[in-house]
Amino acid sequence: ADHQKADWVSIHEKICQLLVPVRTSLPFLIPEEERKHGVEQLVKRQKYIIDLTYSTAQKFLWDGKHEKAMPAALHALRFSTEVYGSSSVQLVPAYLLLAEACIGVGHHLQASKYLSQAQWIVLRTPDCSAAVQHRLHRSLGLLCAAEGNFERALYHLANDIYLASSTFGVKSIEISGGCFHMANVFFRQNKMDIADSLYAEV
């Protein structure tokens, strides 16, 4: 009952009516052109739900509401899998959302499993964009920092900043997150001069 309530508050209320046409099967005996149009409409609706569930989960994370982010992120992953397949790079953003939500509530082992899935997909995608890779390194850095493995966290966050710089430019807003999390790591190591310079950069 608690899980159902959490799911409803998090996302289900927003997508409930959208699920009806998505879950309704197409009639079997219809012309091919009509069937093709029906499939196109179905995929369009599914992609809309992916965008909605992803943005809802992201907003909960930004607000620090990690538990509320999980149901929305799970829906994003579920529909991404239906549309793109289980090994598509399109699933990585949903896995990263789930990992960040798990880190936020202290479920580090589960976060590690989600990040392993994301890493496996990235490694199997030779042309995976630097934009996706920088977000993966940021999530890996956050997990390492949460576990107290500061050297490993700095390694991943340095990769995050480098990849974001090469994609978006050295003065882009996308870099600020990596710098902020790196500053937090140096702050926890009591290296205040480095932490302050990074905070100033943010």
TrEMBL record:
The gene is Zmynd12. InterPro entries: TPR-like_helical_dom_sf (IPR011990), Zinc_finger_MYND_domain (IPR053248). It comes from Asarcornis scutulata. PANTHER family: ZINC FINGER MYND DOMAIN-CONTAINING PROTEIN 12. This is ZMY12 protein.
